[in-house]
Amino acid sequence: MLQRVVENLIGRIHGPFAFRFLLQPLVAIVVGLRAGVKDARAGRPAYGYSLFFHRGHRREILREGFRDIVRIFIVAILMDVIYQVIVLHWIYPGETLIVATVLAFVPYVLIRGPMGWLAHRWYRKRRQKMPMVPS
Q1: Is there a smaller number of Cβ atoms within 10 Å at the N or the C end of the chain?
Q2: Residue 54: what pLDDT?
Q3: Rg of the chain in Å (alpha carbons)
Q4: How far apart (Å, rounded) are the C-alpha atoms in residues 17 and 15?
Q5: How do residues 69-94 score in pLDDT, each as one tens digit?
Q6: Long-range interactions of 10-17: CB distance < 8 A, separation 24+
Q7: Residue 7, Cβ neighbours under 10 Å: how many?
């Protein structure tokens, strides 16, 4: 079974719908960039940091991230199901979840945290440089 999973996952790279291996992570990255900037504006810590070190809020943090990426995740699932029906003539839900997670959720998580950190630093420097307005 593990051999079939590996062969099927590798086969997706060269099969129909191969463009999604570039397009879906790119869209997830753009959504992650926007969310990171939003985190910085709100004064929240980096997403990945919060995810791993704020145990009490982990479920809420994951829910918020999933809300941001749910459409991309659903499209990744649908495209993989279509691929499986066309090429494999069968649907393997576990493989679909692996592919959707790798193409949508992982790029989002990897970019949102660093972008939030960079945007937070940028906003902090910008506020320090702004002249004080007399009241």
Answers
A1: C
A2: 79
A3: 19
A4: 6
A5: 898 889 889 988 998 898 889 999 99
A6: 11/87, 12/80, 12/83, 12/99, 15/83, 15/87, 16/83, 16/86, 16/87, 17/79, 17/82, 17/83
A7: 9
Contact 107, 28 (CB under 8 A): yes
Q: For the chain, what's the residue count?
A: 135
Whole-structure pTM over 0.85, yes or no?
A: no
Structure tokens at 72: 């991309």
| 3-state helix, strand and coil shares in percent for the chain, rounded to the nearest 5 | 85, 0, 15
Q: Count CB-CB contacts under 10 A for residue 64.
A: 16
Higher pLDDT, 130 or 77: 77
Residue that the structure tokens 């320090």 belong to: 128
Q: Chain centroid to CA 124: how far?
A: 26
Question: What Cα–Cα distance (Å) separates residue 10 from each residue in 15, 33, 80?
Answer: 9, 28, 13
